[in-house]
Sequence to fold (118 residues):
Amino acid sequence: MITEFAPINLYKEKHGKFPSSKIKISLWDKIVAHLFGSLIFAIKVRKVGLCTFKFCANGFERKSNLGDKFIPWDKVLHIHQLTDAYLMELEQGFIPLPYRCFENHHTEFKNLISNKFV
Fold:
């Protein structure tokens, strides 16, 4: 996720908009992103634990070791579709949603967000 999204986010910060096509990054940048991202992700998983998600017309709920958190759709700025996950962009931060967390509800989620973010 990091090597896919980092260039997009950097482009947006620099130009004020999302790129119209995929941005390529160097091999060195990919290596650094994997090493740094793996370390940060390991720390996050240790602190937050595995998350479960529930989605509805009003928003979504995330349950983790830190407790339950409900985020209404109007607080979601953008949803980025990556190779193995969605990345929900909030005003302050991002929430990764790996495809594996959807079980049999992936199509339902895609229909829900297509009405709000496309």
Observations:
- The chain is about 40% helix and 30% strand.
